[in-house]
Input
Amino acid sequence: MRVCHFITALVVLVSSCDEPFTLRQKDHFLSYGVLIANEGNFQWGNSSLSFYDAEKDTIYQEVFQGVNQRPLGDVLQSVTLNDDKAYLVLNNSGKVEVVDKNSFELQNTISGFVSPRYFHIVSPNNAYVSDLYANKIAVVDLNSNEISAYIPCEGWTEEMVQIDDLVYVANLESNQIYVIDSKEDAIVDRIPVSTSINSLKKDRQNRLWICGENNGVGVVLCMDPKTSNVLYSYLIEGEDPSELFLSEAGNDVYFLSDGVWHINVGEANATPIIPADGKLFYGLFVHDDKIYIADAINYVQKGTVWVYDLQRNLLDQWEAGMIPSEFDFINP
Output
């Protein structure tokens, strides 16, 4: 779970030696690689996007600004890729920027949100947007790029996953999961959870994975959403796990908790595999046998991305923007 960061220290911002992305580079951009969402500082308006071009082994900075000739906005909370579009959720700006996935040229701006968090594509025509303060989930018409309706729900809503016509929504304030019928755009059930919900994912078997904390003990659990039965449960003493990531095959679970941890589904214990060693691990992504870790450092200087193989060997490191927090794989 990521929240806004209030920075009280007086800092001097030093320009990076990396060249920002420019219009001249646009034809060579976003062919194959890793997109890095840099959250930025609350009220500083310094969120950005970085892109690692795997074919050129090159990291590009400030790609939205370079293409569209204006800043992205205040607090980039999340990114959702869908077909040829990317939806960029700007939490404190209260909007979603819709860009072309490969050129990153701005196509539309969806506005009218209070404090949006995550953008979930429900169908070819609709999407849901969770919110920190609104006490409702916005329904977005993907054809008009406007809010068409609201689903009332109390509390802070976060990540969403979908199984058939049902959308499961994490509620951070009540330790429960809302179940929304996407045909009716209405809540039809609530699933109580014995822990806070820092992250919510589903696997290939349509099981829900949740991580959070309960009375000072970190918890990662897997449940059957139809019965609410807990199938697997892992305790991480004195830790608060976050940033769940499930492998494509569904047999491996990764998460952050003062380092990177791994669960081989069905085994008894979670295992720490990459220690933080004083770093501020803030985002996690696993793809093509590589582990990508976002290091926010201290929230007031540009962050770092660390790249490991599955055997825990450090392969590479890149400079990112301010507070790197999320990764997405671009494959045209």
Observations:
- The radius of gyration is 19 Å.
